[in-house]
Amino acid sequence: LSTCQGLYPKDSPSRLLKDLDGIWHFKIDDSLSRNEGFDKEWYLKPLNDTILMPVPASYNDITQDHKIRDFLGWAWYDRNFWVPGSWLDGKTRVVLRFESAYYYTIVWVNGKQVMTHDGGHLPFEADIAEHLEEGQPNRVTVAVNNTLTAKTLPVGSVTYHNGEEYPPNYFTFTGDFDFFNYAGIQRSVKLYTTPKAYISDISVVTELEEDGSASVAYTVMVGGVEGNNEVTYEVSLSGVKDSGTVTDGIAKGTLKITNPTLWWPWTLSSTPGAMQPFQVKITTDGVTDMYIQSVGLREITVTEDQFLINGKPFYFHGIGKHEDWDIIGKGINDALLMKDLNALLWLNASAFRATTYPFAEEMLDLADKAGIVVIGESTSVGQKSVSNFGNESLAHHLQVMKELINRDKNHPSVVLWSLANEPESSLSVAEEYFQTLVEATHTLDPTRPVSFTCNLDYNNDKVFKHMDLIMLNRYLDWYQNGGHPEVVPYALRYDLEQWRKLYKKPIMISEYGAGTIPGFHKDPPVMWTEEYQVLALSAFWPVFDEYRKSFLIGEMVWSFADFETAQSTSRTDGNHKGLLTRQRQPKLAAHVVRERFSALAEGR
Ligand code: GCB
What are the boundaries of each domain within the chain? Predict the structure, then answer.
């Protein structure tokens, strides 16, 4: 079964698009075996005893049923769709694409298995033309399983409880991460067509030259060419054109742009976010495929103490974020993405971290256009024990990086790859593991620096020696010294100095924050009040101001908005470190951070 990743579905003169979002049929397999769907081959017929379920959305919060909210195992979806006869002419690829489903997914079309995908938050697709019927409805069936193990990313575990004191077949699930294990078809599902010979991938890499021009190296991959048929191509960007013949499925070249319009973050330019159409056409046997890839021309450099975009020092003053909303969970909705972007701009954030998994490409498109910088992160969180660093984990982790880079390589907003959140980087197995990952990531993408976020001390970590820069998650007046922000300047200065003695690499504080229940007030401030959040964050700022003149390249508040987590005694209906509530309304600290970010943006 080939599951590949293609270009983001867009229509063009050679490509048609059909949306399969909407209301699907849904059921969970909570049978005793938890495997009835496979035992009884549910995919062979329309599912029965279903309820209705929106796509895209996490299924967890849609109903009033706690069994669905906390479900772990196989959830099933199906729906019918029609295709026009013209799509089944034998000369057209009809591609079924999922922008993501969580976590392990199997897809059938008219009862035939067409693809599987391992891991959430990244797209997968397959040409299903041969399985489609004309003149009658076609059925797509999806089984998706959110069970996590020691070898999945994120890491999780299931514990079975036997004995009279428990209900029959009782088990509990623990995810080694701080967000709710939302599941289902969480992003869009689409059908799109291409000609048989088609553009399968496009990438552009920009280098800025001394004379102010830009060299844009492009690579276009072509799939589906039959025999020795000749394929010609044409590309154009900013009025500069190139053309030639495709060799072994690849067209490559460099466009020299003399007066390039560069992509800038909004903090470095008054005309940020310049995206330009890179038009690609390939033709064989008189049939043309065309795709327009949006690109932004910019270059990243990391020195001993600076992070440069187009040669200018960039400071990450921003926020770590989740995809997390009321009702739709980790589902995607344009209005909510737009609201988040507007809130980020209101906060004057120069950057956000797509924390602990790849965010929807739709959000990266918005960040590209607004000139907000993004830290892209893999799905790794909870790699804490030796059993999480075996070959199986590594193979999956490499695959995640490959799919992530393949999807996001043309987004200028994405400037840095984070390989993991808070792995146990004190383990020797972790060192070897991450060394392999860094090397592979640099090979896949030589243009972006690589790091990970770390919550350990300078004398415990074994992994940063292999990274391009250092990212530290620090809760110096929350998990440590809770209630005592006066410790922060000492602890933080000491911490930064120790790291700097070890490595001549730039450092970013990739998380710092304090839990805050909106509406809790107290003066003098105590933990959980809105006043304490202001105090807890601002305690870091004098030290940030001292070091941002040298090697500190960023300060990232945790977190953008309150978000859902597993139920526990340390989380009051979710994590409340948000500057905003889950409904995106500001807490007191949001106003104060906004002022600081405005000053930082103005270079004060
Ligand atoms: C962290 C984690 C993040 C948590 C945060 C917290 O260090 O990286 O996923 O949500 O702390 O609030 O505990």
Answer: 17-146+181-193, 196-298, 301-601
